[in-house]
Amino acid sequence: SSDLRRGRDIFILLDVSRSMLAEDATPSRLEAAKAAVIDFAEQLRGTGGHRLGLVIFAGRAMLQSPLTLDYGFFLNRLVQISPDLIDKQGSSIGGAIRKTLYGFGEIDTTYTDIIVFTDGEEHTAPALEAAREAAAAGVGLYFVGIGDPDAGARIPIDIGDGKRQFLRHDGQEVVTVLRESPLRHMARLADGDYLAGRTGPINLWPMFEEHIADKAQRELETGEGEHLADQYAWFVVLALMLLIAEMVISERPPRDEETAS
Fold this sequence. Notes:
two-stranded antiparallel ribbon; 37% helix; alpha/beta
């Protein structure tokens, strides 16, 4: 059976560059961002028809969840995110915005918003150009800045055996600070908004209510298509179970050897 749901399409863009491992936000910038998105998704769930999509980026961008009403699938992808998923380092905010606009399949720009979680380490001309492109396309663009804008923090690197050291460059420990002014600038260019998450708990809901909730909403016929992501997840679980069963069976010794011993 299908029913009609009204809502916006909201892409969450999550910076997974190494600077997001800094611990000026608790327990780290990346984990603080994830916690904020989880809270936001739980609040959105009660409103009905908003679809969520998930993109991660460092030096390049990767789609982790297409737009879906299946929040279980979306959150499952979110909790598994780590910087190891992207081999190309850097923090290409502009590239991630552009890829979301054009690269992951067609989006309906009238009903789409992009919320970027980042420490703003990249503030190049391409990022500003991408913000202008989002504005020209009519896509809402919002930024959440994470980290300490003054003192900053070092970047821990896991070196195995429960030990770690801090990232160094030219013999010096790297200190990463939240760069707020380029994020504010991009938000202004795109007629969006900037939320200073900094080092405290982040609540997206006021930003959503002020800027997104009252925008035009698309009508979505929710039939079988919306549950494809859910079914896909079950196929993966089933395949894994079959694989484990096969490994267990193949490791068993033949029966006559068991009785001989």
